[in-house]
Amino acid sequence: IRTVQKRGGLDAYLLKSDDAKLPSKARRLKRRVQKALSGR
């Protein structure tokens, strides 16, 4: 939790994290966040 907070929240944590280090569910969530941000 501290690492997530340190990076600025869950969205920022996922976007800054390497895909290889994330579990499959987190990678799917990261893609959803990226898609939502690109649609702005």
Mean pLDDT over the full residue set = 92
What number of structural domains do the residues give? Answer: 1
Gyration radius, in Å:
10 Å
Terminal CA distance reads 28 Å
Large-scale geometry: flat
Question: How many beta strands in the DSSP annotation?
Answer: 0
Helical fraction? 55-70%
What is the N-to-C order of secondary-structure elements (H for helix, E for strand)?
HHH
Topology of helices and strands:
Elements: H1 2-6, H2 10-16, H3 24-38
Short descriptors:
40 residues, mainly alpha, flat
Question: What do you see in this structure?
Answer:
- The chain has 40 residues and is mainly α.
- It has one domain (2-38).
- 68% of the residues lie in helices and 0% in strands.
- The protein is built from 3 helices and no strands.
- The N and C termini lie far apart (28 Å).
- The mean pLDDT is 92.
Summarize this structure briefly:
This protein is mostly helical and 40 residues long.
